[in-house]
């Protein structure tokens, strides 16, 4: 499965967001996702499987628990692909920063 196919699903993106804060047990991930999306535990497990098989997550056993963590390798590949497009928004963000700074200066000058 292509990285953008994996990331195209909002449930999988949310799981990655949860894991960005650090390793999480499958049960905690499942509870959070089920509460937000109203899907079943088996559906969450299927999303975790897709992420694991696509290389976006790692899993390790700790007793009876399964602990998931982000594997950054596919995300680095996505970032590398996006690099060629970064100029489209970087210039605009730089211009926005300039305008914000100009507005702050004007507010200081005009009491």
Descriptive labels:
111 residues; three-stranded antiparallel β-sheet; 6 helices; elongated; alpha+beta
Describe this structure in words.
The structure is a single chain. This protein is an alpha+beta fold and 111 residues long. The protein is 68% helix and 13% strand. The protein is built from six helices and three strands, in the order H-H-E-H-H-E-E-H-H. The chain has helices spanning 3-7, 10-20, 26-37, 41-53, 73-82, 86-109; strands spanning 24-25, 57-62, 65-70. A three-stranded antiparallel sheet has the order 1-3-2. Strand 2 and strand 3 (65-70) form a beta hairpin. It is elongated, with a radius of gyration of 20 Å. The protein starts with a helix and ends with a helix. The mean pLDDT is 91.
Structural class: alpha+beta
Poorly predicted segments: none
Mean pLDDT over the residues:
91
Number of discrete helical segments: 6
Summarize the main sheet: 3 strands, antiparallel
> Whole-Å distance between the termini?
58 Å
Task: State the oligomer.
Answer: single chain
Shape: elongated
Q: What portion of the residues fall into strands of 2 or more residues? A: 5-15%
What is Rg?
20 Å
**Number of DSSP-assigned strands:** 3
Element order, helices and strands?
HHEHHEEHH
Range of helix content: 55-70%
Cross-sheet strand order for the largest sheet: 1-3-2
